[in-house]
Amino acid sequence: MGALASLCLILAASPLAARDILLNPPIACNLQTDCYIQQYVDHGSSDATMDFRCGPLTYNTHSGTDFALRSIAQMERGVDVKPAAPGTVRGTRGGMPDQIYTPDLAADFDGRDCGNGVAIDHGGGWSTQYCHLKQGSVKVRSGDRVRLTTVLGQVGLSGRTQFPHVHMTVRKNGEVVDPFDPDGQITCGTPSTETLWKTPPIYRPGGILTVGFADAVPDFGDIKAGTATAETLSRTAPALVVFAHIFGGQSEDIIAFRIDGPKGVFLDETVVLEKNQAQLFRAVGKRRRGDWDSGTYNGTVRLIRDEQVINIGKGVVFIQ
């Protein structure tokens, strides 16, 4: 995943006070390249929604921070979940299956939306909860003392979720606290410099998760699974398609696609988004009208918002 051109880095951030909890990200991956934050705590009133930067990366009544993986294939390889702070385990669940939530499964999750998870007491009224862990991965039990290096389990797809991630909720005396803006006093354009993070994760307003090639427009399920990308294609493939898997898309965002082939620019097209979407994909391409030229085809996708490129993704395929 390319570096964002307009990263919203929270500078000079510090814990709210010496008596408060100090947190680390609970996922063992690089939040700039291997994983990302999909959604934040909802600060909107009534049915309105907004994250701590007055952006759309949340949904109504969302109570935590979602640290997400780029694909189910990455989840299957295994990504550890660790405590955000030392403490004592006060509860666990570990037997629910990994599956993408659909409405017909609602009855199965009554009271168990969190899926497999771990709850930790940090003292002083502070607690954290970690949801959607992989089935069979939970390694701790109630009463265990845990440190920052303790593996609680692995990122999964259990409970009420449609993408692999660990949802972390922070509470003080039972009340939800947003670790990015603990006092909850939101001022759009000037995010708080007081957080609960030891080093605040960078806020990404959206980004490109994957750029890949295929011989037809792929199924979104295959893209999310990480199985849609072809490394090589035949000269007689029916089509040459480049696709981009994106998070945090907003209405009027521009997705600019370009393919450079053995003879120069092969394709140069743009797509404009019509609505906000937490996750989406778009694809463009050409049908075969004769055998494709052999060689390397490089795909470049730019996510453009308000005339600024906020992310660039790249993919490659070899035709033989």
Describe the structure.
The protein has 320 residues and is mainly beta. It has two domains: 14-193, Distorted Sandwich (Glucose Permease (Domain IIA)); 207-319, Immunoglobulins (Immunoglobulin-like), CATH 2.60.40.10. The chain is 4% helix and 39% strand. The chain contains two helices and 20 strands. It has helices at residues 72-77, 220-225, and strands spanning 14-15, 35-39, 65-69, 80-81, 87-93, 116-123, 126-133, 145-146, 153-154, 165-172, 175-177, 194-195, 207-214, 232-233, 239-249, 254-261, 264-272, 277-287, 295-305, 308-319. The strands form five sheets. Strands 2, 3, 5, 6, 7, 8, 10 and 11 form an eight-stranded antiparallel beta sheet that branches. Strands 14-20-19-16-17 form a five-stranded mixed beta sheet, with no helix packed on it. A hairpin with a 2-residue loop joins strand 6 (116-123) and strand 7 (126-133). The radius of gyration is 21 Å and the shape is globular. The two termini are 27 Å apart. Residues 1-18 have low confidence and may be disordered.
